[in-house]
Amino acid sequence: METLETGKVRITPEENQYLLFTLYNDGEVTSDDMSDIREYLAQFDGKVSLLVLRESYYSFSSEALLIMTREAGSMINAVAYVDRSPQDKLLSEYAEKTYLRNIPVQSFQSQDEAASWFEQYGPLPSRL
């Protein structure tokens, strides 16, 4: 399965169980990035699970936050964050209480712990 690269975000299918969503380039995630992400997620026949890794410092534009608030629940089963620091933990808690409030969100110390949590949500859906 192909990988999506927006210049700020990389999405890669992992173990046919979840999508690895990596924020890898400092900067603002915009509505243009969200359009690419939306198009990528739309290729799946059902909701997906996202494991989020933060490898950079980033922000979301107000338009990007609005898109996530409105659309995440229709495309995403659950979101797991791997927190590198207390600041990351605060960002994960903010996401859980705001733009991802209608989706199960959990924070973990390692990618392996997060991947294990996704077992309850089943495999990635097939592609259309």
Task: Describe, in plain words, how this protein is organized in 3D.
With 128 residues, the chain is an alpha/beta fold. The protein has one domain (4-121): STAS domain (Transcription Regulator spoIIAA), CATH 3.30.750.24. The chain is 34% helix and 30% strand. Strands 1-2-3-5-7-8 form a six-stranded mixed sheet. β7 (76-82), α3 (86-97) and β8 form a beta-alpha-beta unit. α1 (31-41) runs parallel beside α2. The longest helix has 14 residues, at 62-75. Residues 32-121 form the DUF7793 domain. This is DUF7793 domain-containing protein. It comes from Solemya velesiana gill symbiont.
Order of helices and strands: EEEEHEEHEHEH
Let me know the CATH homologous superfamily. Answer: STAS domain
The 3D shape can be described as: globular
**Secondary-structure content class:** alpha/beta
User: Strand order, biggest sheet?
Assistant: 1-2-3-5-7-8
Layout of helices and strands:
Blueprint: E1 4-5, E2 9-14, E3 18-23, E4 27-29, H1 31-41, E5 48-54, E6 58-60, H2 62-75, E7 76-82, H3 86-97, E8 105-108, H4 111-117
Parallel strand pairs: 3-5, 4-6, 5-7, 7-8
Antiparallel strand pairs: 1-2, 2-3
